[in-house]
Write a structure and sequence with these properties.
By secondary structure, the chain is mainly alpha-helical. It has a single domain, classed as Up-down Bundle (Methane Monooxygenase Hydroxylase, Chain G, domain 1). The chain has 4 helices and no strands. The radius of gyration is 28 Å and the shape is flat. Core subunit of the mitochondrial membrane respiratory chain NADH dehydrogenase (Complex I) which catalyzes electron transfer from NADH through the respiratory chain, using ubiquinone as an electron acceptor. Essential for the catalytic activity of complex I. Keywords: Electron transport, Membrane, Mitochondrion, NAD, Respiratory chain, Translocase, Transmembrane, Transmembrane helix, Transport, Ubiquinone. It is found in: Membrane; Mitochondrion membrane.
Length: 117
Amino acid sequence: MFSIIIIASVILLITTLVMFLASILSKKALIDREKSSPFECGFDPKSSSRLPFSLRFFLITIIFLIFDVEIALILPMIIILKYSNIMIWTITSIIFILILLIGLYHEWNQGMLNWSN
């Protein structure tokens, strides 16, 4: 029993030492202006590399992800139909689809689905 404690202590000490050495050796020495700037074929960039991003594209991406997850959750519901109680399955499906329809109505009401602006 005593030897197991010694072996565990030695392993803990070795892993701590290796993690400490890896942390010290992996640090970059200097933060250089040339290395932190974007690569532009050796020339200084004329404008900022961080262009403002349209919030519309972000919202459309989030809406796509929500409805993509919706499809991933609805498809297994169809498969388990024959293995579950039909009443519980129907109630669960209706509640799930109602929540998604309320979310869709809210997005439509807020104008997130309009591209005309």
